[in-house]
Write a structure and sequence with these properties.
Elements lengths: L1 H34 L1 H8 L4 H8 L3 H8 L4 H13 L12 H4 L6 H24 L5 E3 L11 E3 L2 H20 L15 H8 L7 H8 L6 H18 L19
Antiparallel strand pairs: 1-2
Helix pairs in contact: 2-5, 3-4, 7-8
Length: 255
């Protein structure tokens, strides 16, 4: 029957896709193992042989043998080749996640990033169960410090972030490269990407008035409410406009 044939065809396609992914991962894992770039990277960063050996599950003598001839130039060449091949290579350990995110040039790096967000959601849930107060999170990237507009993390927000992760991971799992992404693509503006990852929609005027209880019935009240709304958007990093000089739709109606 046609339905049976279609079912076999779809299963065969999924199995072959799985085999291709496994073969690619095996090739890159062998490349990574042969070059021992992780051990050389630790050495280049000045980590002690003892600590590196403990993390790798090797003896200090073996780590010394593997890294004694490694040079920084050779290390960088190896990492460049790994990145070009699409395999996750270590980035700047001192950089923030917001700074490093645009530099993630492959699907593997993005998936590792999403794992970090899942762990964060688990930490939020633990906090909500353990403490009498909810955790808070900064809506702006770390580079915007000292600006720190914070929002409360409650269960609905955790659920929203998990749904965002699920949508992104589903799209990442189907993509062969980052160019194939649509909703999961990294936004050009770091602040917008930060809000997207926190499942924080852009603030609307109606939502702002409802949240703050500011009335907007009259022209004069509407003008003040709009200025306060734009000020809050500026604080959240949604706009760079001065809220007191920017366009105000209520201003033209004053007599």
């Amino acid at each position: 029957m046609a339905s049976d044939w279609l079912g076999r065809f779809r299963r065969e396609r999924r199995v072959l896709a799985r085999v291709r992914r496994a073969a690619w991962r095996l090739e890159q894992a062998e490349r990574e193992r042969d070059w021992d770039w992780a051990l050389a990277s630790a050495r280049a960063d000045g980590l002690s042989v003892r600590k590196t050996a403990e993390a790798a599950g090797l003896s200090p003598t073996r780590v010394h043998q593997l890294t004694k001839d490694a040079s920084v130039d050779v290390l960088e060449a190896v990492l460049s080749e790994l990145r070009a091949a699409g395999w996750l290579a270590p980035e700047d350990p001192d950089g923030s996640e917001d700074e490093e995110l645009p530099g993630h040039a492959d699907v593997a790096a993005r998936l590792v990033d999403e794992v970090g967000w899942i762990r964060r959601c688990a930490e939020w849930i633990d906090h909500l169960k353990r403490e009498n107060f909810p955790p808070v999170v900064n809506l702006r990237p770390e580079a915007d410090s000292p600006e720190r507009p914070q929002v409360v993390v409650d269960l609905p927000r955790v659920a929203a972030v998990l749904r965002r992760i699920a949508y992104d991971v589903d799209e990442l799992a189907r993509a062969r490269s980052l160019e194939d992404l649509d909703q999961a693509r990294i936004r050009d503006e770091p602040r917008a990407e930060r809000r997207r990852r926190l499942a924080e929609p852009d603030l609307t005027f109606t939502a702002f008035c409802a949240r703050t209880g500011i009335p907007a019935q009259s022209i004069r009240q509407g003008e003040s409410a709009w200025t306060a709304y734009q000020d809050e958007r500026h604080r959240r990093g949604e706009t760079n406009d001065n809220p007191y000089t920017a366009y105000n739709p209520f201003r033209g109606g004053r007599s």
